[in-house]
Queue: 3 jobs
Job 1
Amino acid sequence: MLGDRVCSKCGQLIPRGTAECPICSPPRAFQVRREIMLLVYLGLLIVLGTITGFAVKAFNRVDKRIGWSWYTQGEASLQRGDAAAAVLDYRNALYHDRSNPSYELQLAHALVASGHFDEARTYLTRLWATDPANGPVNLELAQLEMRSKNVPGVINYYHAAIDGVWPHMVAQGRLQLRERLCNYLIAQGLRPEALAELMALAAQTPNDAQIQAQVAGLFSRVGDYDSALKQYQESLRLNSRLASAWAGAGKAAFELGDYEAARHYLNRAVARNPHDRESAKLLEVASDVIGLDPFDRRVPFQTRRKRAIFDFNHAVSGLVDCAKTKGQQLGAPAPQTDLQTAYAQAVKMKRQMRLSAFRRNPDLMEGGMKLAFQIEQLTAKECGPPQAIGQALLLIANQNKGIGQ
């Protein structure tokens, strides 16, 4: 075979006018068929890939529906109080939908309810690491810290929950979370921490009479009656018909020793709610304090003397009743008990507790009231809390500690 060139692959001569070696290069028709086949194969791959994608998506949708079915079953298990069953339900839900944090959170909740605290913490910590601003996760962690008695942890997680992201949280919901934190701190006896939270709560409280009254009640629980009274007054400014606010204001004023204000508020509370026995009782005591105080400079001196005689006689009468309940004989020549000694002192003082004697010696009134206060304190110690007038006398003694000591 003659040619001008030699094929570099097979060594054959390439005929003139031919671009490629006839031995090494396939016919043109074959090349065309090969390209067509490649295109066909590529098309088939695309079709199969598309079908596979649709199949995977369809499978995932079915899997998610199965997961949702297990999730709803878990919710039902929790509602009927079967936490152990709920744990299994939520595990199955997560198996079918591993990327759903809501299922993981509910599994952690069910684990807590069933007593598996360490495992619950593992799930919650992982969720927190992924989303530290997640409100529900922080709340669950706060409740776990409560069980561990880790107060700083409780406060930190509650703050994160209050400021965190919630699916459908409103401002009142955040207030309720802070209220729950306050209740926890109060229950733990952590007054400074509770007061700090209450100050923040009061600053965020909306112009809602009921909520203002609830916050005032928390201040009362920690013994900050001044702040409580202010909150109750704001509540009444918003809604003067709120009986609970009148009652709360009355109790706060009573604890502050402002019995005139307490009587005003408690009168309104009882008028609004005649079944409020606590307010009625406080009203009676406050009225007795106002009407029996012999040291009230606003009333005439003659009236104060009469009050002193009444108070003294009431204290002695209570002493006699207390001795009877204790089975002690009063009037013995040689007193042996505290009640007998107090009675012997009262008998001597009683001879001087007369208006005529007060005119000659004004200091007798103070001496008589000092003994009356001591007798009331003794009978309260020996026989328990006294009734309304006795309570009033103890409160008057507390207001005049220099006399009662």
Note: Residues 224-292 form a domain with the Serine Threonine Protein Phosphatase 5, Tetratricopeptide repeat fold (CATH 1.25.40.10).
Job 2
Amino acid sequence: MHVLPRVAELHRRFEGQLVVIGVHAGKYPAERATERIRSACARLDVRHPVVNDRQFRIWREFDVNAWPTVVLVGADGRIVLRQAGEFDTESLAGTIAREIERFRTEGTLDEEPRDFGRDPHVLAEPEGPLRFPGRVLAWGEKLFVADTGRHRILEMELVAHDAAAIRRVFGSGLAGLSDGAADCAAFHSPQGLATDGTTLYVADRSNHAVRAVDLGSGAVTTLAGTGLIAESRPGPGPATAVALRSPWDVTLVDEGLLVAMAGSHPLWLLDLAAQRIAPYAGTGGEAIEDGPAREALLAQPMGLAGNQGAVAFADAESSSVRTLAMGDPGWVSTLVGTGLFDFGDVDGAGEAVRLQHAEAICFHDTRIMVADTYNDKIKTLDVDSATCRALPGAAGSGTAFCHPAGVTSDGHRLFVADTDAHRIVIVDPDSGSVSDLVITDGRTAAGDPQ
């Protein structure tokens, strides 16, 4: 994901000389379905053609062994460079420029513009008010929705059992990073949300920042991050001076605001009073290993849930649900999940359970509700027995959702951000029945401008 903006920048610089082709070799079975890849391209605004290498044929042909890998092929068809991992844009740009000059000198460079067009399904806009909503948060009679694909946050009021009205919108709807009044501020692919009723905290994923919305005035401020991605494992420091890597979720704890730093794997703690941020759990290595918080290994934590001092998190790349006991030294434990390549769709208890890239969780009474994202199911996890099962009915069938990436509870029912279906779904956690939340624009009725 971090490579995509860099690829786009190189394509812009060398538009007449560089052809970019993405090759997608999916780790998870769900990632190998062409329709899912098409949705992901739309969600991530991928503008170059992408090949579905579902059988890893191109992967093997180019001797690739890691995600991501960039391969630079010269005008003569020979491999100029093969590099695993994230690359430095300027360094690769220098290599590309030198190769362009070499092939120009040899007279073998074809600089005829290439227009591959774009898949109309990728370009299509959804009809409703949401576009790839990433997260939803219930708070009393309110719902806050991260309308990720439109770079804004919606504040909605529940006006009936299955209906909500938009009361306020935070963000201009244009991708960017700017603070200020609700309609002038800018987010970029916002994700996780948390609130104390006065302030709404936002994990602003593509801005690599943590933002705050004053729920009185609607003003948006930046609490942490520089707006640039950290190129190495950053350390502690003043919150707005430390570069972050894809913060994906936030939750309030007694010590401050816990941040799931998906792009570098640890959980970070933002001290709201001191305005300082620091790694709290995880070394930055990618694996699943329990123990003292600062020695544990995490793997792309994407979902957080706090409940009376307990914190649970969805560790997406290990398809696991884990817990964090706050304190000194703190402790990380695993409820379900065993390894980076141990995934599937198996109910049971403890190590027998298999999830597939679970991205979000929430507490509901004494249970944890899991958005088992790549299995398109909502599952329930008993903390004491580590028993995990799909909900009954439609919610656990694998056919009712399309990439559910957010889940929240109002104490009675669940609200699910069904991301690739561009909707919020109401779920009865006991029967597993589902229904669409009907969303209307209530800003005119409230006296606010459209």
Note: Helices lie at 3-13, 34-43, 57-61, 89-106, 120-123.
Job 3
Amino acid sequence: MTDTARPKAVPTVQVDNERVRVTEWRFPPGGATGYHRHEYDYIVVPMTTGALTLIGPQGTTQRQLTTGRTYFRNFGVEHDVINANPFEFVFVETELKDGGAR
């Protein structure tokens, strides 16, 4: 698992209805989401260019994200997401509820 002393990423839900949930995530330097499992397919739109560290069942990886370069993931992903940059990192996540919880 991850260091519980990390600052917390701050989620702001912008839309939440029967079909989608759209959340802006703001990570201070070193900030983390905490370990979680995605119950829905989701799309991430980075608002910042930089690196995120992902800690999951298969270990630790680092991903480079680019502003505006959207990516999609299927439900079931388990991880902690950590800002590996010395600056705030922001992305918008859209969860697709249409398929129902899985």
Note: The first strand starts at residue 10 and ends at 16.
